[in-house]
Amino acid sequence: MSGEERRAAGGPDTESARGLAQMEGYLLWNAEVEQAHRLARRFTDQLPWLTTAQREDVERVYSTERTAESRAMLERISARALQLRGEYTERYRRLRARCVAAAVLCAGAAGGACGVLGYLAR
């Protein structure tokens, strides 16, 4: 299936939702990177004896470590979310099957009761 066929199958609403989700992810990640840079600057501000080159190196390493930790955390959260989605989908499927079975049973009991009442009313 080509990209055009996939877009047509998904529809414009699906494509828009996907685009918005990607934009949100992009903005959230950029905010996380900026936060890492701010924390790195705050950290190096506490070390006034560093030279400019040392300060830049420490900020770069700190930011790199912080973003790597953030990425690892997001990957763990994403994996857990997928796992929960599977678990809840299975639970919903079982609950739906039980509800349908209960509805069929109730309809059968009601129909049987009506049949018995109709037979007794003769």
Overview in brief:
Helix content is 93%, strand content 0%.
Any overview of this molecule?
The protein is an all-alpha fold and 122 residues long. The protein has a domain at 3-86. Helix content is 93%, strand content 0%. The longest helix is centred in the last third of the chain and has 70 residues, at 52-121.
User: What proportion strand?
Assistant: under 5%
Proportion of helical residues: over 70%
Rg, nearest Å: 29 Å
Query: Number of helix segments?
Result: 2
Unreliable residue stretches: none
| Averaged pLDDT | 90
In total, how many beta strands? 0
The coarse overall form would be rod-shaped
Assembly type: single chain
Sketch the major β-sheet. none
How far is the first residue's CA from the last residue's CA? 65 Å
Helix/strand structural class: mainly alpha
Order of helices and strands: HH
What does the secondary structure layout of this molecule look like, with pairings?
Blueprint: H1 3-45, H2 52-121
Main features:
0% strand; 122 residues; 93% helix; mainly alpha; 2 helices
